[in-house]
Every structure is written in C-alpha cells, then in structure tokens.
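sorry for the late reply, my laptop died twice this morning and i had to redo everyting from scratch. anyway the thing you sent over, i finally got around to it. pasting the sequence first so we're on the same page, its 295 residues, then the predicted structure underneath. double check i copied it right bc i was rushing
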Amino acid sequence: KKEKNISCAIIAVPDHLHYEVVNKCLDYNLHTLVVKPFTTKLIEAKKLIKKQKRKKLIGLVEFHKRFDKHNLLLKNVYESKKLGQPLYFNVEYSQKKIIPEKVFKGWSSKTNILQYLGVHYIDMVHFITKAIPVRVLAMGQKNWLKKKNINTYDSIQCLIEWKTKSNIKFNQTVVVNWIDPNNNSSMSYQKIKFCGTKGNYESDQKMRGIKIISDENFLEEPNPDFCQSFCFDDKHMKWSGYGIKSVTNFLNQVLTSKIDGNESTFSDALISTAVIESANKSLTKNFSWQRVKIK
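ok and here's the structure:
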C-alpha cells in the first residue's frame, strides 16, 4: 500500500481466509469487495463491520445473484404483493464433481457446499423479503468425496425459518451438492420456487433457453446472463452479465461514490453469516435445530 497508489481490493481467496485478508485490507485503508461468504463466524463479521465503519471505507460482498434478472423479477413481483404472504422458498443448487475434486482441491475440505454455494440464496431471501432468520436445521452426507480423501459433505439439506417485519413466519429449504456428473450440460444446476398465499414464482436458472452441441463437445446449456464475452466486428471483446455486475458496481462506487442499490454491504451480509454459522453448528450437533443469534 505504501509502495503503490492503491485505493481498493477485490478478494477471492478460500472461505477460511476471508476474515484474515479482509481485516488486513481494512488495516491498509482499502475499500474492499470480498467473494461470498463474507465470513463463516458472526463474531468475525461484526469485527470487520465495526472497523469498516470506523474507517469510513466501502465494504461489499460479491453476492452476484442479486443482479440476476430472474431474481430481480421475483423481488419486484414479491414487493408488488401479487404473491401474498410468503409460505415457503425452495432452492436446488449444485455443481460438478470437478469443483471440489480438482478446481478447489487445495481447500475444499475446509469449507462445505452450503457456505460456499448455497449462501447465495440465503442472502437472496433476505434481499427479497427483508425477513430475519429465526432458526436453522442442517444435515449432510459424506460419501463420494470422503472416498476421494476430501473430508467434506457431498450434499447438505438445510431448513431455515424466517420471520418478516409483520411477524409472518415462512420456511426456506436449501438442497445443495457438488458431486453432479462432470458431463452435466452446465456447470451449475439451479432452480428456485417461491410459494405465497396468493401465487407462486418458479425460476429454472440452469436452462436459459440455449443449447449447443457439436462433434467436439457434449451438450452444453450455457448461461449468457452470468458472464459472457462478445466479439464485435472490430475484434473488440466486451464482457457483460450479472456475474461481473457487483465488481463493476464496486469499482464505480470507489471512483464516483455512486451506488446501484442492489449490492450487499458488509452489514447486509451479517444475516447470511449468522445462518451459515448456525447451520454449521447444526451439522456438528446431530442435525439439531439451532437458534440464529444476530445481535
């Protein structure tokens, strides 16, 4: 920091290193964007928030699902009250075996699929409904990855009870795994369903309406909404998609102080961190219900 004119940092390190690296960046007075999850422990999150606010720095978590138009449409429909009061929110989210076995092999045993991947839709429920988590139950299975000498869960099923500002309680079920076949047609399988007293919202976020098959490759179902480069006639490449929106928004905020309004601040991420901490406790305590303590 002393040697170069650096004003911000974008952190993409293994989950268990988030607190240490974010804390050091704040010590250097750097505006900071960190990939999800913010941290895995509530006490760490609170320390970082306190330091970030005291230093008057920008602190954001890269929850890019907040910028996916599928989810923004759900937020708009929910806020219009067309769906009524929430009853339940179901999520199925998974990725290929290659992720824990090879891509993140060096640290996949130090995390789990819920806090690495499922946390997106824990944040999403709070983002959409402004509800607060009440209690959490999580269970998981260790089978295929354990046989590969990777001591982490193949799959986790998590039940979260939420409460709205009007004291309406509803449940969220998050079913996640990262042992999908490597010849799956896309990197991520993702599907959500919101059920309310007046209507439903379903979103298949894997199938974006595109299929590609050739002699060289298996069937592909790409997601051009996430992050895609497009080549123009002048050979100029341009990237677009919700996958980079939170990054460009962060940089724009650092440069101009203008905000989008959908980004997740450190304080926003306190909610998902609290749920993840409670879920991890449930996994180690015989899959029992755990109260979520935020304050």
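The mean pLDDT is 92.
thats about all i looked at so far, will dig more tmrw
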